[in-house]
Amino acid sequence: MNTTFFLGLVLSLALLPSNVVAATLLILRAEWHASAFAIAWVFAAYQVGYLIAVLFLLPLTDRVPAGRVMAGCAVASSTAFVLFPFLAHGVWSAAGLRLLAGLGLAGIYLPGVRVVAAATAPPRRGSAVGAYVSAFYLGTAASFWLSGALLPSLGWRGAALALGVVSAAALPLAILATRNTAPVSGTRAHLDLSVLRDGPVLRTILAYTGHSWELYVSRGWLAAFVTSVLAARGLSPTAAASAGSQWAALMAGLGTPGVWLGGWLSDSLGRSRAALGIALASGFCSLWFGLLGTAPWALLVAAGCVYGVLVSADSAIYSTAVTELAPRDRIGSAQAVQAFLGFGATAAAPLAAGWLIDLGVGWGGVFALAGVVGLGLALSLLPLARRSK
């Protein structure tokens, strides 16, 4: 059985309903009479739920088999998504359900990284973890595309229900994929912050935090940006939202091969050197991408595709590096700190972007915010990159 393949399916299924909100952000904002900052809370609640849960779920995997944690969290995630179209009638009810779904994702994503890394020899570990993490981007892109495809015929509630029901298939697959994993060796199941005393671990986590910030400004507002461009060119709100989410799916979907390529590159160049190079290229793309709203459509799409590859390509490198650099009995704690800071950035980033939009800052400023933070934190890798192989 290919553990990486099956766990990738689990992750993709868990994420399938996750971007119904991002794909319909402008529709929900109008329906619920919400500000951009308020509606951003609905999107960000998913990250907040993840943020809360990682502090106890990831250290738990130092003592409890990851498969049990993943199965329980698959139930929580799919339940929240199935209930969403029935119970979400405003910003705060929607945010509460998204928070529960984020709690579920916390026990699926990084525990899966740990299982894949442990099952793979070091010379191929970056590629293997990259293949698994690419499922994150595949699930995200599929969520954007399917949301847009289902929206005209089913409305946002019907699309959310359909994707939520399909996501429930993650549970049996999680049980199947982890039934033969090696037993855990740790004796503690609580967070140990002493892992931050390790300089390479800390620098890797800081760079991951910058990557997460940049990625989630894009992930939260890319579909809305493309939708606004299409609406300005004459499409109706529903048609613009449908087409915008599908074009965003294409751009974000290129993260699927991008993240695998980044992992493969790190097997050759070293984790820190590869991550730094990718982060610099991605950050510079962010600085100018939001200025392309009035550019020729072909140029916007081409630039978005390049951006989609680069903004994702270093993702698996950080996750792989943390499993290699952290002490064997505290990998869960190191992953918890990584996830808390990284996903804290994913929660704050779309909110900060929404605040800028409410202030009247254009799309250029929104994406530039992503690039400045990503570039700044990526520089923490410089000492490690200098001595990387």
Plain-language structure description:
- This protein has helices spanning 3-15, 20-23, 25-31, 36-60, 66-87, 91-106, 109-118, 122-167, 170-178, 199-232, 237-253, 255-269, 271-289, 297-313, 315-325, 331-358, 363-378, 382-386.
- Helix 13 (271-289) packs antiparallel against helix 14.
- It is mainly α and 389 residues long.
- It is globular and about 55 Å long.
Cα distance spanning the termini: 33 Å
For the residues shown, what is the average pLDDT?
Answer: 87
Share of helical residues = over 70%
Question: Proportion of β residues?
Answer: under 5%
Overall tally of domains: 1
Q: What is the count of β-strands? A: 0
Oligomeric status: single chain
Q: Which structural class fits the helix and strand makeup?
A: mainly alpha
Taking all Cα atoms into account, the compactness measure Rg is: 19 Å
In CATH terms, the superfamily is MFS general substrate transporter like domains
The general outline is globular
Provide the CATH topology.
Growth Hormone, Chain: A
**CATH architecture field:** Up-down Bundle
Report low-confidence residues grouped into runs of 5 or more: none
Helix and strand arrangement:
Blueprint: H1 3-15, H2 20-23, H3 25-31, H4 36-60, H5 66-87, H6 91-106, H7 109-118, H8 122-167, H9 170-178, H10 199-232, H11 237-253, H12 255-269, H13 271-289, H14 297-313, H15 315-325, H16 331-358, H17 363-378, H18 382-386
Characteristics:
Growth Hormone, Chain: A, 389 residues, globular, 18 helices, mainly alpha, single chain
How do you describe this structure in short?
Helix content is 81%, strand content 0%. With 389 residues, the protein is an all-alpha fold. It is globular, with a radius of gyration of 19 Å.
